Amino acid sequence: MAFDPSNPVVKLCLQAMDMEANNKPQEASKLFMQAWHKATADFEKFIAAYYVSRHQSNTANKLKWIETTLQLALKINDDSVHSALPALYVDRAKCYEELGNHQEAKINYELAASPAAAPSDKGPFYHGTKAALQIGDLLTVGAKSNYKANLVMNHIYFTALVNGAGLAAALAKGDGAEHVYIVEPTGSFENDPNVTDKKFPGNPTRSYRTTASLKIIGEVTEWLKQTPEQIQQWRQKLANNKGEIIN
Predict the structure, then answer these.
(1) What is the model's pLDDT at position 190?
(2) Distance between CA 57 and CA 69 in Å, rounded?
(3) Cβ neighbours of residue 53 under 8 Å, at least 6 residues apart?
(4) Which CATH class is domain 8-113?
(5) Measured distance CA(226)–CA(125) in Å, rounded
(6) What is the pTM of this model?
């Protein structure tokens, strides 16, 4: 399934994260468990199980939930979850250490240390902006950030989710019309570290960045557009975000 912040399971997890931020771990734990019971799709279960595991005080129970999360990630087996695997193997190794099973701990530490493969996402890929561009144009590094004043970006960002690109277009600086272009990376690319394994495990928004050019090969005109109220809420969230952009 595509990542959707309006998904009921995702919304429960976001509410639980707010509880965590307000130092209310018991309330957060209950909400994460509610998310688990409400989840039906594997991706929903993966997210919920990941957070349920982090609220287990008993090592055996924590290991059970980590194992559940890991098996769901392996079952999903796509770029939305791949980057979460090393941390899951480390968590599983630590549980085995605490339980005295050093052989299994060693195996899982080795799995966690395996070289992380570059994203294998085949797209199609999208880039949202208010700039009016033409097919064949190249997007290159050096543009100013839409989210932090005076920051010149060392990468170009794009996504495999058209609605995510649409949101980026709505939040982009400028007064022009919103555009979502279909783009083709001309070089290698990586998971966007600003979102990958941050709020959610893995890269559920399928967000990437590159230092190479992006070639515009088309434009889409249909995507799920946010209401003005929703856009204002997103702008407020960005304004309140004190974290540094990994550039």
Answers:
(1) 92
(2) 17
(3) 62, 65, 66, 68, 69, 91
(4) mainly alpha
(5) 20
(6) 0.81
Reading the block at residue 147, the tokens are 């989210």
Q: Mean of the per-residue pLDDT values for the chain?
A: 90
Distances in whole angstroms, Cα of residue 44 to Cα of each of 1, 26, 77, 194, 221 = 9, 21, 14, 22, 29
Separation of alpha carbons 75 and 59, rounded Å: 24
CATH topology assigned to domain 125-240: ADP-ribosylation fold (3.20.170)
Q: Over the stretch 52-62, which tens digit does the pLDDT of each residue have? A: 999 999 999 99
Across 125-140, average pLDDT: 94
CA atoms within 13 A on the CB side of 111: 20
Residue type, 134: Q
% pLDDT > 70, the chain: 92
Domain limits, the chain = 8-113, 125-240
